[in-house]
Amino acid sequence: MSTYEDRLKALRTQLVRVHLDGFVVPLTDEHMSEYVGAYAQRLAWLTGFHGSAGSAVVLPEEAAIFVDGRYTLQVREQVDAAHWHYESVPQTSVAAWLGVHAPEGGRIGYDPWLHTRAWAKAASEALAERGAALVAVDSNPIDAVWPDRPAPSEARLVVHDDRYAGQNAAEKRQAMADWLTARKADAVVLSALDSIAWTFNIRGKDVARTPVALAYAVVHADATADLYVAPEKIDEALVQHLGNAVRVHPRADFGDALKAFSGKAVAADPERAVAAIFDALEAGGAKVLPLRDPAVLPKAVKNSVEIAGHKAAQARDGAALTRFLHWIATEAPGGGIDELSAAARLEAFRKDTGLLEDLSFDTISGAGPNGAVVHYRVEEKTNRRIEPGSFYLVDSGGQYRDGTTDVTRTIAVGRPSEEMKHRFTLVLKGHIALGRAQFPAGTRGSQLDVLARQFLWAEGLDYAHGTGHGVGSFLSVHEGPQRIATFGGGDEPLQPGMILSNEPGYYKTGEYGIRIENLVLVERRKVPGAEREMLGFETLTFAPIDRNAIAVELLTAEERQWIDAYHAKVIEIVGPQLEGDALAWLQAACAPL
C-alpha cells in the first residue's frame, strides 16, 4: 500500500470480493463531522487529498473525486489525474455522476454510517436510471484494505465549566425535554459531536483542532439522558459532573439501543444523523420524527457569558496575532522566512498566552501563488519563502476555554503592485460594507452575501467560497446553521448572539491570494423611527489590516472613517497587552489613513 495507485487497486479487488461494482467514499465520520479523527480519514488514505470537504467514487474502470471551489487547485496538486477524474461541486454531484457513469445493472456500495438518508435517496434515484442499485454495506471495504488504520482516540473527556458555558447541563436537558413535550416526542437522538459537547457541557480531544469527544446521546422527555461513549474515556470527575440523570453506556452499544424504542416517537435530525440511525430506529418499531437537532440553534445563539468569554479570547488572540504581524513586518523583507516557519512562529505567539488549548484549524500560511489556494495546507514539498514584492496570506485561529477564534490577514511584503493594491482594496471595501450592514430581523445570510462581493463583481471578479460561517464557543470553528453565502447554505435567519465570520477574498491563480477576515456578532440596533426590529454586526476581531496594501484613493470618506475607527479600537484593545517595539509598530500600523 505504498502508493495511492496500490490502494485504489486494493479497494477494487475488495469490491469484487464483496460483489460490488463501485463504492462511494465521503470525507466524514459517523457523526457527519466536517473535521474527522485520523481513523475516519478514508478519503485522504485512498486518494491523497487533504482538504476538509470532498467525496470520491470508485468504479471498476474509472474513479472520480468531487470538491468545491475552495479546493480546485489543491485537488490537482494532491490527487493523481492518471487515476482520478476531477469533478466540481455544486456544478455536479456524486449522485448525478453515478447516474451517468455507473455500470448498467451495477451494485454501488455505500456505508450507511457515513451518509444521510437524503443523500442515499438521491443516489438511489440516479442509479435507477441505469438499472443500478445502491447497496448498504455492513462493513466499510476501505477498512478491510487499510492495514495501519489508526484506532479511534482514547483521550479522556473533560468538563466544560459553567463559568465558560453560562448555563448548566441540567438546564439544557430540561429545555430539550420541554422541546420534546411540545412535539409529543419521547426522545431525541443526538449524533453531532458539537451538539453533544454543548448539551452536556463536556469537551474532548478526539478530533484534531475541534474539542469534541466521540459519543452519541439520547435525551428523553423526562430530562434524563443516555450517553454512549467508550468507557476508558470517562473518569470520576465526569461521572460526578454528569450526575444521576445521565446514564453512561459503551459507545459500541448505541446501534442496538436504537432498536429498543418500539412504539415511541423519537426525533432525529435528517441533516446531521446518518442513514443507519434512521434505519435502526425504524427496524425497532420507533416512529421517527425528522426534526432539526434541538441543540443547533441555542448553541449558535451565544449567551452573555459565552459572548464575554469570546471577547476575552479575541483580545488575547489579537495581541498574539499582532506580535506575529510585527515579527513578519520586521523579518520577512529580508527573505529569510518561509510558510512553515511563519506558521510555527504564529502558533508560538498564541502558546505564549498560556491559555491556548489548540489551534482551531491548521494554519493556512500561503506565500505568493500558494495564497491563491483557498484552503492551502503547507507541507515540506510545497513550502515557499515569503518574498519581497508578494502577498502573504495567513488564516489562523485558536481554541481557548473561553472562545474560538478565526482571523485572516493578507500582508504586503515590500512594495505590492498597483493591481495587488487595487484588488486588496476591492476586498476591503466588501469587508467594510458587510461589517457596516444594518438589516431587519429575519434577514438571512444569503441576502447579505452580495454586500461583500459587489465591488469585485463590478469589475468582473469574484471568489469561490462563502463570505461567512458560524463559529462555536470553544467548539467547532465552522458552526451552523448561520452562514453568509449565496450557495451551500445561508438560509437561516440571523439572530442576536450569533457569531459569524466576515471574510471576502480574491484569488489570482499562480500569483497571489487576498482574504480579510474578522469575526462579528449579530446585535440589536436602535434606529430612530424604525418600524422593524433592526440588527447589525459588532466586530469582535482586533488586529491591524495592512495599510501598505490599501489604495486609499479607492475608499469613500465613510470607508476611511471605518478603517480609522477600527484601528483606533485595535490600539485600545491590543495596545495595553504590548510594549516596546511591538507597541510602537502597532501604533504606526494603526495610524489614521
TrEMBL record:
The enzyme's main class, written as a single word, is: hydrolase
Decide whether keyword Protease is in the record: yes
What does the record give under GO molecular function?
Answer: aminopeptidase activity
| All residue ranges annotated as the Peptidase M24 C-terminal domain in the record | 533-593
Q: What is its EC number?
A: 3.4.11.-
* Peptidase M24 domain residues: 310-523
Record key words, sorted = Aminopeptidase, Hydrolase, Metal-binding, Protease
Q: What Gene3D superfamilies does the record tag this protein with?
A: Creatinase/methionine aminopeptidase superfamily, Creatinase/prolidase N-terminal domain
Q: Answer yes or no on keyword Transmembrane.
A: no
Q: Please give the CDD domains that the UniProt record associates with this protein.
A: APP
Sequence ranges assigned to domain Creatinase N-terminal in this UniProt record: 7-138
Report the family membership: Belongs to the peptidase M24B family.
Protein name per Swiss-Prot or TrEMBL: Aminopeptidase P family protein
Which organism is this protein's natural source?
Answer: Sphingobium tyrosinilyticum
